[in-house]
Design a protein that fits this description.
single chain, 291 residues, alpha+beta, four-stranded antiparallel β-sheet, 6 helices
Length: 291
């Protein structure tokens, strides 16, 4: 009887010790799980941060390359003509042909990129007047100058008055007097209300394949119309770039080019980061537990 009473406290102690060890093991396991979870979350956060950082750097590099490599696609500016009036002869007031100085600068930088081919055209909005009809063909002379005033390129193009053709030689479409009167009567309400005007648009190609000098940039263009009787409502100079090769792909397929460029930069940066990280791991002396 005494032995049973004596053995019962020992069994209780062993049971309580076993329970305590189980609780301690369970606590250690929970702590280990929580520690591993925290470590995984920390590693995931670092991984996401590194991926976002690499993507941002890749996009920044592609944007910088696109901005520095791609020239301006189109450039349009109004053309304002003037006459010289310092005549020596008192019988004449106009001393020169209509001329215009056009700046080829934007934000203090040249509009034309070296090595890029451009097409320059002049758009003239002219009244359908008897004076312009009697004028016939006239010449338009264009000269590009550098910052030092040196002449870089010159072009003279004949233009047939009141034509909508963009070719170098243009001709006026013949219309009989009866057809002209009929058109005036047909559009008479629009003419009277000011919705339409009796005008035509002439577009003359000044340079078809203009390429800027690699040593001297063009910053000014002088346009001279070799006729003192020409009548003009308004005028505009249009410059269009002809892209070829990589520039053609970047301009015509911007989304696809951006995806390919950013992806290539991201892969390149990721490889560099992984190699740097592996080299850093090899330099550190890790213990068995850390390994």
């Amino acid at each position: 009887m005494d032995q049973e009473t004596h053995s019962q406290p020992q069994d209780d102690k062993e049971l309580s010790g076993l329970i305590g060890q189980t609780l301690l093991g369970l606590r250690d396991a929970v702590a280990l799980v929580i520690s591993n979870a925290r470590q995984k979350v920390k590693q995931g956060f670092i991984l996401v941060f590194v991926v976002i950082l690499l993507l941002w750097i890749a996009a920044f590099l592609y944007g910088s390359f696109y901005y520095s490599y791609m020239p301006l696609a189109t450039f349009s500016t109004p053309v304002h003509y003037y006459y010289r009036t310092d005549c020596e002869s008192p019988a004449s007031f106009v001393c020169s042909y209509p001329m215009a100085n056009i700046s080829l600068m934007r934000n203090k930088k040249p509009v034309l990129t070296v090595g890029q081919v451009y097409q320059m055209s002049l758009q003239l909005e002219m009244p359908d007047s008897p004076t312009n009809h009697e004028l016939g063909m006239f010449m338009i002379k264009t000269t590009c100058f550098s910052r030092d005033g040196e002449q870089i390129a010159s072009s003279a193009r004949p233009a047939r008055q009141l034509s909508t053709s963009s070719s170098r030689f243009s001709m006026l479409r013949y219309r009989s007097d009866q057809l002209r009167y009929l058109g005036t009567l047909l559009f008479l309400p629009a003419f009277l209300t000011g919705i339409a005007e009796q005008k035509q648009v002439l577009e003359v190609e000044l340079f078809s394949d203009f390429k800027d000098d690699p040593y001297i940039s063009s910053i000014t263009a002088v346009i001279e119309i070799l006729s003192s009787k020409v009548q003009i409502y308004s005028s505009q100079l249009d410059i269009h770039a002809h892209f070829t090769g990589m520039r053609y792909l970047l301009f015509n397929f911007p989304l696809l080019s951006a995806m390919v460029g950013v992806s290539s930069n991201f892969i390149f940066l990721s490889v560099i980061f992984v190699l740097f990280y592996m080299r850093l791991l090899l330099r550190v002396d890790w213990g068995p537990e850390q390994l």
